[in-house]
Amino acid sequence: MEGELVTLRAFCDLHLDRPHGRCECGRVFVGLGSYYGTTTAMVRHLPGITEDDYRDALCHSLDAQGWPAADAEAEATRLIAEVERWPVGAIIERFVDRLAIRALSDADIGRVPGRH
Question: What's the pLDDT at 32?
């Protein structure tokens, strides 16, 4: 859903064997509230959402879906570090564990205040 926080879905062995095959799990981000997958995510600055808020949302989402949340803290830290490299407005795509900029949006281009 537009504006929803996302994470990476774990990918299956089928995707490792055929990364361009029918299984999409290594190519999608998953909404923390909707649990729907999307092939792109936009880097956004969301006033009022802290890194701790993201970590809490990720833990809650995993728990609600029946996934173990034990690694949520480390996963959140890794994703936050990835996102901090990109400008606000960047459209990100995923290929297994590699994230890359697909495009830059005309809206919201710029850097989050305080980032280099």
Answer: 94
H or E, element range at 78: helix 72-83
| Mean pLDDT within 75-87 | 89
DSSP per position, the chain: -TT--EEEPP--HHHHH-TTSS--TTT-EEETTT--EESEEE----TT--HHHHHHHHHHHHHHTT---TTHHHHHHHHHHHHTTS-BTEEEEEETTEEEEEEE-SSS-B--TT--
Which of the two residues, 82 and 22, has the higher pLDDT score? 82
pTM higher than the cut 0.70: yes
Q: Convert the pLDDT of each residue in 53-65 to its tens digit.
A: 999 999 999 899 8
The pair of structure tokens assigned to 85 is 């490299």
Contact criterion met (CB below 8 Å) for 42 and 91: yes
